[in-house]
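Figure 2 data, in text form.
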Amino acid sequence: MRMTFRWRALAGIAALAVIVAACADDDPGAAVDEEPDLDADVTLSYWLWDSNQLPAYEQCAADFTAESGIEIDFELFGWDDYWSNLTTQFTAGRAPDVFTDHLAFYPEFVESEVLIPLDEFIERDGVDLDQYFPGLADLWRGQDGLQYGLPKDWDTIALIYDAGQLAEAGLSAEDISQATWNAEDGGSFEQVIARLTIDANGVRGDEDGFDADNVEVHGFGYSNPAEAAGQANWSGFARSIGFTHLADDNPWGVEYQFDDPALAATLNWWREMIEAGYAAPLEAVQGLGQATLFETGDIALTVDGSWMVGTYTGLDREVGFAPLPEGPEGRWSMFNGLADSITIDTDHPEEAWAWVRYLGSLDCQRIVGENAVVFPAIQEASDVAQQAYADLGVDVGAWNLYLEQETTFLFPVTDNYDRVNAEMAPAVEEILLGRADATDRLAQVQSAVDGIMGAG
């Protein structure tokens, strides 16, 4: 597959060189110094996976088309189908002109040379990468030093709780927002989720006679944790007791640390909560999903990403948000951000760049902010989003706390992430199902990952 990618990449680069040369009109500096005319008859294909964000980007597209004449043809896929379809289309040479990119996948695309570097466009048009939140643009710079995406948003992780169930348990919002956690006794956070848990006889998890085998309401829910990043589940907990995914640089480190005792302790606690009946069974989370379990009242509190705020506030429940519990080494959240990338298969690189540049501009990101679906990558537009949430009566301060306190850490950006994830995902699942010892199983993962990354 990589050979196919690279052959097409070289062909596409050659084609792009011809286009740039044609635009130069015998002047070597013209391709960079002068923005060429755009073809108003072009229709660009644009892919994304989040249906919640589609209306905002359709509005951006309408404004872009009114200004440029270029039409945008949207294609929306579910998360899993999105990446499998994209890989298939790259192989066939029919990838979309532009697509929403993710840090877990783009290193492989860079290695396969199926993305067009944006550096000459950025330099020519004077796009200021410093307008984005610190570090976001750097995430999209490959090991070759070239830029492969313009940031569109950022996200952090927080707790979502059912305010009604909280009140019925005799708990306050402060009990959650000020919760502490450790891997030994779970801190006050474990006490909270135990109190929120109710068995079939109405006995709570912190009361005598609680039946862990017949639970009606689990105090704690989570997204599928069987993954290498643990982004919207275990990563913040593990970081709060000292775990970091990479021992060296991020992005582009090579030394994963899955055998760190802090990670084993975190996953052991997670398994203990499932066995105690306080946390939803892994099978239920993987089958129905945490949002469905929350909506039906089967879980009272969950952990999720800021991109899901609209989903939870749209449910027929009174919800509240709180930061992740504070561990011995602080209160931490993974910090991630999406970007838009141009594929080598595009026949219209200039028009595709114009669309990417607009997606990354304050004009479009303000529209996204006004729609209150995600936090845009530009500070001013992010402020618009927070005000839009406030106007809806939604307090999103929990998601911003980590930025204010400078307690964020990056999604691990490395080569071979798909292979790393293929080793880590089943191991986490086995640990949480009680089929493997965390320390031993993670040592096996570490050995395999060292081989993948060339570190052992």
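Caption note: The chain has two domains: 2-155+337-377, 157-335+409-453.
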